[in-house]
Amino acid sequence: MFESAKPLLRLALPALMALPVFYASQAVAQAYPDKPIKLVVPFAAGGTTDALGRIFAQAFSQSIGQSVVVENRPGAGSAFGIDIVAKSPADGYTLLWGSADGLAVLPAIRTNLPYNAEKDLTPITLFAAAPFVYALHPSIPAKSVADFVRYAKANPGKINYGSPGVGSVAHLATALLETRIGIKLTHVPYKGGSQAISDLISGQIEMTTTSPTVILPFVQAGSISAIAQTGQMRSPLLPNVPTMVEAGYGDFVVGSWFGLLGPANLPDGVTKALKETSERIKANPELQTQFKQVGADLMDARSIDFKAFIKDNIKMWKDVVSKAGIQVQTE
């Protein structure tokens, strides 16, 4: 009798040994979170990423009944803050409010990052996206994309455009415009977007790529013109500015995006709990309004593989970098 039972015992033993691990994982997930969560925003306070991260943190905190503390850790184009999260314990108490800048663009333009965006993080959920606006100084005689293309082709290299810096999403979104419509612009990198806007208003540069929120008051005042935006649909902040799709560039949809990530090897139960809560708070009317006021649209990420999404974005931006002849940074 006992001899005949041995094969069954051998088959059952691995499963029995795994039970403590399974139940321990379930217990951790059920108890989570039992202390405050730190949300790292890898940019300085006051910008779009920071504003959205704080709105998210407040709504998330209210939903789970636990504090979510925003910690700004700017530096190296967001690489510094991302690396902090990548090297944190995988317990769900240090999370990243990440964006396209550090998760897709930097990996496309830098080979010396201290983290691997595809391997060192656990993508939890894609939360929101924000389009860009191509803005011009009134000295450029263009009221539409077609006008701009004609003028730019007649004046190659004479239009100076400002960006928040080399390798920023705004920089590459303008490089994409150049390669897509066959024009040549001159890049003027700044250490932030605000100085680019100031110089655009004063006429030191002729163009910049920025967010609807930033550009809105200047468009309303007539000091800057907006010829197109890059979202799938028009931003409600700029209902009279057409999209690139409407301008005849059917698949020209690009912008920044924002999501929640943790360190690699985050427990499945914790990841699931964070994703479910993130999706649930998107139904919060106050959060929806606040995100729209900052110029971002919430995304239904329930069917989106965030990990694959990041991989595809890195590939896309690497292609833009190659076609635009942008030098990849190796040091």
Overall description:
With 331 residues, this protein is of the alpha/beta class. It has two domains: 30-130 and 256-324, D-Maltodextrin-Binding Protein, domain 2; 133-229, 3-Layer(aba) Sandwich (D-Maltodextrin-Binding Protein, domain 2). The chain is built from eleven helices and eleven strands. The protein has helices at residues 2-31, 48-64, 79-86, 100-109, 145-154, 169-181, 193-202, 212-221, 268-281, 285-293, 306-324; strands at 37-41, 68-72, 94-99, 121-131, 133-136, 160-163, 186-189, 207-210, 225-229, 255-263, 297-298. The strands form two sheets. It has a six-stranded mixed sheet with strand order 2-1-3-10-4-11, sandwiched between helices. Strands 7-6-8-5-9 form a five-stranded mixed sheet, with helices on both faces. α4 crosses α11 (306-324) and α6 (169-181) packs across α11. The longest helix is centred in the first third of the chain and has 30 residues, at 2-31. It is globular, with a radius of gyration of 23 Å.
How do the strands and helices of this protein lay out in sequence?
Layout: H1 2-31, E1 37-41, H2 48-64, E2 68-72, H3 79-86, E3 94-99, H4 100-109, E4 121-131, E5 133-136, H5 145-154, E6 160-163, H6 169-181, E7 186-189, H7 193-202, E8 207-210, H8 212-221, E9 225-229, E10 255-263, H9 268-281, H10 285-293, E11 297-298, H11 306-324
Parallel strand pairs: 1-2, 1-3, 6-7, 6-8
Antiparallel strand pairs: 3-10, 4-10, 4-11, 5-8, 5-9
Name its key features.
331 residues, alpha/beta, D-Maltodextrin-Binding Protein, domain 2, 6-stranded mixed beta sheet, 11 helices, 11 strands, 45% helix
